[in-house]
Fold this protein.
Amino acid sequence: MFRRKQPVLDEREMLEMYRIEHAGLWLMYALLVGAVLVQLFSGATMREMAGEVFVIVTVCVVMIIANARQGIWAMNARPSARDNAACSAMAGVAVAAVQAALGCDPLAALGSGAAAGLLCFLILMALMRYMKRRQEARERTLENE
């Protein structure tokens, strides 16, 4: 049952199966994030949310590594500093909004948001450089074949 067998699906069915899995992954991710936010606003401690947070972080890291190794950035975007800045700004605003909603000092919430936005931008820029190198290496490999 778990041994590798020849696929019984044709290409169209495989593509449809991948679409279903894609939607299921994003649904699971959204539900986990929602569960963490509900727990966060209802006063749960980090220890109580550790399982959900671990799953979210693990899925994120695995997806980033898998896509980066293949030189894939996103389905409908190319890596750019402008897009990285926009995404980082959204992340910073989200962090600041959650901090403010939890009753933190507004200045501390703003500082947390700015730090999160900056960290996100630096990570995205480093990832963008890595991805571009991977894409160039893949193109050179394809040209040599």
